[in-house]
Amino acid sequence: MTTAEPWASVEDVAKRLGVAKDSVYRWIEARKLPAHRIGRLWKFKLSEVDEWVRAGGAQEDD
């Protein structure tokens, strides 16, 4: 039996990626970062975040 992947917070994602929480919120707003709204909170699956980064989602658009 596999254990379900736990949900991660904005703080967890910011720490994992080495960025400010503001960057995480900006990436959510731009509808790029895979996030799930649970009540008033944003939650993440770290496997989805890792895949997003590998796919180039964290690259600057400038």
From TrEMBL:
<protein>
    <submittedName>
        <fullName>Helix-turn-helix domain-containing protein</fullName>
    </submittedName>
</protein>
<feature type="domain" description="Helix-turn-helix">
    <location>
        <begin position="9"/>
        <end position="55"/>
    </location>
</feature>
<dbReference type="InterPro" id="IPR041657">
    <property type="entry name" value="HTH_17"/>
</dbReference>
<dbReference type="InterPro" id="IPR036388">
    <property type="entry name" value="WH-like_DNA-bd_sf"/>
</dbReference>
<dbReference type="InterPro" id="IPR010093">
    <property type="entry name" value="SinI_DNA-bd"/>
</dbReference>
<dbReference type="Pfam" id="PF12728">
    <property type="entry name" value="HTH_17"/>
</dbReference>
<dbReference type="InterPro" id="IPR009061">
    <property type="entry name" value="DNA-bd_dom_put_sf"/>
</dbReference>
